[in-house]
Amino acid sequence: MKNWKWWLDIAMVGIGAFLLWKSVDLGEAYANHWLRKSRGHADTDTYHIILSEAIRMYRWAGAILFAIGIWFLRKEAMR
């Protein structure tokens, strides 16, 4: 029972680290997808706003997952 919890914690840390590491690339991919979806009718300011919000979203998600994973790993280590 304890083994799967440990792997889940490691996965959270890994996914969080990946999101932090690739947040700019993922944000650019999301902004480009949004631009294609709007058929190019967006101005540059809107594109940059979407890009910065997407990067911020991925960084926050990565930081939260990383922190929760580390917290659970510490909790398991203290037992």
Low-confidence stretches: none
Q: Per DSSP, what share of the residues sits in E-state strands of 2 or more residues?
A: under 5%
> What order do the helices and strands follow?
HHH
Largest sheet: none
Helix count equals 3
Level of helix content? over 70%
Mean of residue pLDDT values: 84
Give the C-alpha Rg.
17 Å
Class from helix and strand fractions: mainly alpha
Quaternary structure type: single chain
* Total number of beta strands: 0
Shape field: elongated
- Amino-to-carboxy terminus distance: 14 Å
Describe the secondary-structure layout:
Layout: H1 2-21, H2 23-37, H3 44-78
Helix pairs in contact: 1-3, 2-3
Report on this model:
With 79 residues, the protein is mostly helical. 89% of the residues lie in helices and 0% in strands. The chain is built from three helices and no strands. It has helices at residues 2-21, 23-37, 44-78. Helix 1 runs antiparallel to helix 3 (44-78) and helix 2 crosses helix 3. The radius of gyration is 17 Å and the shape is elongated. The model has no long low-confidence stretch (mean pLDDT 84).
